[in-house]
Amino acid sequence: MKDKQKNSSFVLHYIQIIRNKICAKLNVGKKLTSRSEDYSRWYNELVVRADLAENSAVRGCMVIKPYGYAIWEKMQLELDKMFKATGHQNAYFPLFVPKSLFEAEEKNAEGFAKECAVVTHYRLKTDPEDSSKLIVDPDAKLEEELVVRPTSEAIIWNTYKNWIQSYRDLPIMVNQWANVVRWEMRPRLFLRTAEFLWQEGHTAHSTREEALQETKLINNLYADFAENFMAIPVIQGLKSESERFAGAEETYCIEALMQDGKALQAGTSHFLGQNFAKAFDVKFATKSGDLEYVWATSWGVSTRLMGALIMTHSDDNGLVLPPNLAPIQVVIIPIYSGSDQLVTISLVAKKIMKELSAVGISVKYDDRDNFKPGFKFNDYELKGVPLRIAIGPRDIDNKVVELARRDTMEKKLVALDGLSQQIQASLNEMQINLFSRALKFRDDHITEVNNFDEFTSTIIKKGGFISAHWDGTFETEEAIKKETKATIRCIPLKENPQKGKCVYSGKPSNQRVLFSKAY
User: Fold this and answer.
1) Among 36, 49, 294, 424, which is most buried by a count of CB atoms within 10 Å?
2) Quick one: 228 exposed, middle or buried, by C-beta within 10 A (0-12, 13-18, 19+)?
3) 62-96+156-313: which CATH topology?
């Protein structure tokens, strides 16, 4: 008898699911453009439809919506823990940089000049010819123009000059969470916007070795975060001179590969040498009493990581989030008919919530009565919630719930007894599975080529990372970029690199580097 009731419960349960899915599919507005049809359009639709962000009234700027910001907050939280665990402290520096300070380090100023927004006046006034309009007050011109920070090295190193006198003042290990402005001509939500959020670390050291060690430490930290929290495999390496941060001696990076075969720079850590110390005359007295310039680093990741997260894991049904960064790890949806059934289900659901919360799992119970279960299923699927629990009155009688995984779309019945352990195990499995899946895709799309015909053919037909020998010259790098639109994403860090001949010039090459088209 119990088996018949159980089967009947499942039939009714799945009829409801199928009915709602059919209704959702009949609604054209519910269906995302497929990745294979138009990857760019799929991405843009997903960002908006999943309630992550939208374009604002200011061209090139975005509104990060609460659900999208909740993901960014989890990223911030984990990264902030990592920074503090390695001895860094948070501070905050001004948004505005006097133009003369910005110009002090020539390479940095030149590198960012075309992206700068500049404040020239400090007041508006009513238009004498039309009182409903405001115009710039010509009498309110600033004595010195202010650059809206595209990066903070200039204002920070001008400040460090006041903080550093002796070796006893070093090292300085500072990070700030902030917004920056880089006037982007081709904006795209999260990937390229005129204003974006980021963290930028700025450290000062007494020796070259210590600064280099810091640069590498942070790059390793970024790789750790990308792989263990974002479930994104990355390749660590050095940037070529032309791709290096303006004003740096070396730029270390982590590079990821998106599902469309394009690379995305996920984080950078810069060894600045003594360039900024010299530009701002920041010296320290050594133990022997000599004066030396300070050694520097800077490093950062931004809301671009949101774009990486979306494009690495998501599918044609919507967002797929790794459990370690999902704002809602589990959602509980009641299947009921009438308020009496809802009351009974709610008692069980709230008990499940209490158990899951007690072991650190974020859970939501969606008992809204103005949406059908099928709508909720589709909505949380679109938003990438890792696990979904569906529970009806007969499930309660049978002491089971239906558990659905977002990554594999698998569903199974799970006993209420021991449910929290099962859910924790499923979340761990999902985190590992998402990383493994992305790693396989990445590794399947690294292609070694030995001549330029193979290079161009691979770029056109397959994409991904191309491992090729390069002669180390700017001229060859630019020629390849002009002919294929592929850039050197990184020079991988290898102990014993293989020498060979450049695929373009035929000249000697010290090692293979990774080329790709990129965001």
Assistant:
1) 294
2) middle
3) BirA Bifunctional Protein; domain 2 (3.30.930)
* CA nearest to 216, candidates 157, 158, 268, 153: 268
Burial of 142 (0-12, 13-18, 19+ CB in 10 A): middle
Quick check: 341 pLDDT over 60?
yes
**pLDDT at residue number 28:** 37
Report how far residue 264's alpha carbon sits from residue 516's, in angstroms, rounded to the nearest whole number. Answer: 9
Rg of the chain's alpha carbons, rounded to an integer? 27
pLDDT one-digit tens code per residue, 70-80: 999 999 999 99
Residue holding tokens 């939208």? Answer: 54
Q: How many CB atoms lie within 10 A of CB 18?
A: 11
CA distance 234 to 241: 21
- Comparing CA positions, the residue from 517, 511, 463, 507 lying closest to residue 491 is 511
Residue 401 has phi, psi (to 5 degrees) of -135, 160
Contacts of 145 (CB under 8 A, 6+ apart): 98, 99, 118, 119, 120
Residue 309 and residue 191: Cα distance in Å, rounded?
Answer: 11
pLDDT of 6 reads 46
DSSP string, 111-166: HHGGG-EEEEES-EEEETTEEEEEEE-GGGEEEEEEEEPSSSHHHHHHHHHHH-SB
Mean pLDDT of 130-141: 96
Cβ-in-10-Å burial (0-12, 13-18, 19+) of 25 comes to exposed
| DSSP 8-state class, residue 173 | E
**Residue 1 confidence (pLDDT) above 60:** no
Structure token digits, residue 409: 């779309």
Question: Residue 208: which of 275, 108, 300 has the closest Cα?
Answer: 275
pTM above 0.70, yes or no: yes
Map out the domains of the chain as residue ranges: 2-31+328-425, 62-96+156-313, 446-516
Give the torsion sign (CA, 14, 421, 334, 46).
Answer: negative
Fold of 2-31+328-425: Rossmann fold (3.40.50)
Could you please state the CATH topology (level 3) that the domain comprising 446-516 is classified under. Answer: Translation Initiation Factor IF3 (3.30.110)
